Amino acid sequence: MPLADKRVQAIDPVWSRTTEEARQAVADEPLLGGLIHSAVLHHASFEKALACRFAQKLASGEMSEQVLREIADDAMADDDSIAQAARADIVAVFERDPACERFIEPFLFFKGFQALQCYRIGHWLWRRGRRDLALFVQMKVSETFGVDIHPNARIGRGIMIDHAHAIVIGETAVVGDNVSMLHSVTLGGTGKEDDDRHPKIGDGVLIGAGAKILGNIRVGHCSRIAAGSVVLEEVPPMKTVAGVPARIVGEAGCVQPSVMMDQLFGVGSPEA
Q: What is catalyzed by this enzyme (predicted)?
């Protein structure tokens, strides 16, 4: 490996691994060569590739790919936490999703990862007062991926949204670091109040498929929300809740539910 490549790998191992996988993917499936080159291999950095992927996915007759790419470039030049969070999200998907075998897979193909990175650009726009453009990004993400995240929501890093169909995250929702959620999850409000009205999800929480968490309630860190649950009351840290309405049914079962991805009652232990 050339010395320059070794330096890049030491500085940005996620980007180095992604480009290595991209080259192998082109060799394995030449029909995808155009996509992989335009999305990954034509770029000098992870940030530039991420901006390009954002633009490729959201471009339409309403806004060109070039304009969208300039927006994303500006966002990542101004706030390096956007791309750092995206790197953490790739690693989270790779480590937690048994269907993910390479870093390049979420980058190119997984709509949960892609929708989340588009939200991060929209959130940057919202925080800078460019609300109409942020809402435009939200609309296009919803149309493209079936994921509706308000640009004012606050979402941490190391997030995995598996399958990512019919995800709804409301305006005042907060999601901590290292959270995993499956499809059809709603972090919603109740009624028509216009103040702080959405859930606050702690670090390391696992939210099962179809779970609905409603209202300005707190879900404690490293807790587990069973699939199909409707959560209307605060959840203490490191507990498992299930049912409609949800009730505490036991301990979380392990130290990091979002990483272990264990959704079976009675399996594991707090020491796992």
A: L-serine + acetyl-CoA = O-acetyl-L-serine + CoA
